[in-house]
Design a protein that fits this description.
Chain lengths: 633, 94
């Protein structure tokens, strides 16, 4: 049998692959990049708040003291697999301040049968008594990188239940009092360095209320910053500096009510991430926001021996498509496993499909929406003359009812690029009349902000919580446009074609407005593009319609379903920056939907009327590229 | 294209998947009526969702009934409220 050498025949090589390339988006969905806690080796001695060496990631921990009651002098080191006992502290105690590494650490203050001021430093093999702290206390936070550079803050001291805001700095030979925390607190945790640290959570005296407060240290003073999402005390903290931290566990009331909740800090906001496997309090943290240990602590004051390791796995969001998939659009390859030739075709919205999503708690129409597929928020309700202030959030699987809008309104979200923790709602109808209200969502509640200059009910919007745009509205038809700077609305250049029941996508300085009703029952297919200064007419939609929904950006957007006066259509069109093309339909055509999505390749629609009001959600996703088998036909 | 008709209640996530949308035609209509592409994948989906098969005429009657209810609701609105809505219209299933 003769063989054909393709290179000789065609002049180029055809790659031979054992498996088809996988689109990055698909691979990321199958293996999302996320931090998760896994079980580590158990300590030899059960402990509560101890002197913990805070650096060393999730494979080089150290812990000293901490047994309750009475305290312990035991010291153990972790190698990523098991804990090994090393030389003891000179003074047994618990609830100790500590930081450093396996070869250079410090343990300060704490409690035996009374508060102690002892300080000991670790040189890699033994502890040595050094200068004492100025104020003996326990259950505070600490930061620092070695036996010669540390900071301790907060805590509880004598007389019993006195809480401190005191901060002391260790220079390798003595402790010096520096600027206090903004408020006294104990049961708190921290991390970072002596000049760049963070403190989160804790409890305040009296009722021992858990706290959500967070403060950062710049080497001179403490500054209050964004609170954690769940108030707690006696939690673990892991941080390399003030802009990247992880907190885990703790107690959420004075019960204690044990928590497994974990939150990640990126320097500006806290995000809930995967929980600890075992809820506990008085748990110790070490490492960083990406590689951490949760050590000891337990359901009661006796603590425990369990260790959990925090690490990231999956495909990082920053993975270059070409590096990961090794796929080149337009290239033909040979799949040596299936024995067929295949081609890599372009992907994106044109190959995207709609799948059913989780069902909201109630069927609703006329809602606003914001956020990506796995972190969406929908709000408001207006089927006819009834309005509702309900808000629901979606995690990609299920909807949860959260705090209501202050004003029962069918409101839209000009911040369509907003998030589940930072959304904006504006204008709309209260049933009997239109409103100029603006409300801002912080992840847990809505608060009223400056009102619009004009009503933009039945309009659409784009942008983020702090930089948004809305155009059109009413009837009668309006062309008015307003932009939001996070504080107030300003009127800017009008649309060329006034409209309501319109759709929009993009950001405050780069938006798209499409479809709508120009006068009652005169629908339009006109599309206008906003450059931050003026609207310019661009290519029209293929299907004239109104009351549909849109999402995406100025250069990649989707127009979904809507009314063509009548009938209702299931058509979806994709905008590529210059023109609209028909792509796969939604399963159920409808009007007055909520729509949200950060790009024209991923988003969702929910609710609406078919004409009965429905709750159905459909999710749109589009792979980066498509692999097809070559045929001879 | 040939179709089958059924009624089925959309339970949400995974009622229909991206893969299924690639495999057969699927369109939802008022009254939980689903028009399904007549192929093996469509049949498997009807089974998966415990769909109650209907003739085209039966399915059309269900849809018409839902729209007539919506038309009556529209007709009961005030003139101002009607301006914010469009009177639902009956249509023929494919």
């Amino acid at each position: 049998m003769s063989t054909i050498k393709l290179k000789e025949l065609s002049g180029f090589n055809v790659r031979s692959l054992a498996t088809d390339p996988v689109p990055l988006a698909q691979a990321q969905a199958a293996s999302p990049y996320a931090g998760v806690w896994s079980s580590g080796g158990a300590m030899n001695t059960a402990r509560v708040f101890d002197a913990t060496a805070q650096t060393g990631g999730n494979s080089a921990g150290q812990i000293a003291g901490g047994t309750y009651p009475g305290g312990s002098a035991n010291t153990e080191q972790y190698n990523g697999t098991a804990w090994t006992e090393v030389n003891n502290l000179n003074t047994a105690r618990f609830d100790i301040f500590g930081t450093g590494t396996q070869t250079s650490a410090i343990a300060a203050s704490g409690y035996t049968t009374d508060w102690v001021t002892n300080t000991e430093t670790w040189n890699g093999s033994s502890w040595t008594e050094v200068s004492e702290v100025n104020t003996g206390r326990k259950e505070g936070g600490s930061s620092g990188i070695s036996a010669t550079s540390a900071l301790i803050f907060g805590g509880e001291g004598t007389p019993s239940s006195t809480q401190y805001a005191l901060t002391e700095l260790w220079n390798g030979s003595s402790w010096t009092e520096v600027n206090d925390l903004n408020a006294a607190i104990y049961g708190t945790s921290g991390g970072g360095t002596q000049t760049d640290a963070i403190r989160a959570g804790g409890v305040t005296t009296g009722s021992a209320n858990p706290s959500a407060t967070v403060e950062t240290w710049n080497g001179t003073s403490w500054t209050e910053t964004t609170d954690i999402n769940t108030s707690r005390g006696y939690n673990a903290a892991s941080a390399a500096n003030s802009t990247a931290a992880l907190i885990a566990g703790g107690t959420t009331n004075n019960g204690p009510s044990l928590s497994a909740l974990t939150e990640s800090w990126d320097g500006s906001s806290w995000t809930e991430v995967n929980d600890l496997a075992t809820a506990r309090y008085k748990v110790n943290g070490s490492g960083t926001s990406t590689e951490a240990l949760a050590i000891g602590g337990g359901p009661n004051t006796s603590g425990g021996t369990a260790t959990e390791e925090w690490a990231f796995s999956g495909i990082p969001p920053s993975s270059p498509i070409t590096d990961y998939t090794d796929a080149i659009v337009g290239q033909i390859f040979y799949n040596s496993t299936s024995g067929v030739f295949k081609a890599t075709k372009a992907g994106g919205a044109p190959i995207g499909t709609w799948a059913s999503g989780g069902t909201p708690n109630a069927a609703r129409s006329g809602r606003g929406g914001a956020g990506p597929n796995t972190a969406t928020i929908h709000l408001g309700f207006n089927p006819t003359s009834t309005v509702n202030n309900e808000t629901e959030t979606y995690n990609g699987t299920a909807w949860t009812e959260v705090a209501n809008l202050n004003t029962a309104t069918a409101m839209f979200c000009p911040a369509q690029q907003g998030t589940q923790t930072a959304a904006l709602a504006a204008s709309g109808t209260t049933g009997g009349s239109d409103t100029t209200n603006t409300e801002s969502w912080n992840g847990s509640s809505w608060s009223e902000l400056s009102e619009l200059n004009s009503s933009h009910s039945y309009a659409a919007g784009a942008g983020t919580q702090t930089a948004a745009i809305t155009a059109g509205g009413q009837p009668p038809t309006r062309a008015l446009t307003e932009v939001w700077d996070g504080t107030s609305w300003t009127e800017v250049s009008d649309l060329n074609t006034g409209r309501y029941f319109t759709a929009a996508s993009g950001f405050q300085t780069a938006a798209l407005c499409f479809s709508g009703d120009t006068v009652p029952n005169a629908f339009t297919n006109k599309t206008e593009s906003w450059d931050g200064t003026a609207w310019t007419e661009v290519n029209d939609l293929n299907t004239t319609r109104a009351t549909g929904g849109g999402f995406g950006t100025q250069t990649t957007a989707l127009m979904c379903t809507g009314n063509t006066y009548p009938p209702i259509v299931a058509n979806v069109e994709s905008w590529n920056g210059s023109s609209w093309s028909e792509i796969n339909d939604v399963a159920t055509g409808r009007i007055r939907i909520a729509s949200s999505g950060s790009s024209g390749a991923a988003g969702l629609i929910g609710g609406g009327q078919t004409p009965p009001i429905v709750g159905n959600v459909e999710e749109f996703t589009a792979a980066d590229f498509e692999v097809t088998t070559l045929t001879t036909s | 294209m040939a179709y089958k008709y059924c009624t089925a209640t959309n339970w949400g996530k995974n009622f229909f998947t991206h893969e299924e949308r690639r495999q057969f035609y699927l369109a939802g209509h008022p009254g939980e009526v689903w028009v399904v592409g007549d192929n093996v994948h469509g049949d498997q989906w009807i089974s998966k969702v415990s769909g109650a098969l209907k003739t085209k005429a039966e399915a059309q009657t269900i849809v018409d009934g839902e729209i007539e209810v919506a038309q009556a609701a529209y007709d009961a609105l005030s003139a101002d409220e009607q301006e914010l809505h469009t009177r639902p219209a009956t249509y023929n299933l494919p």
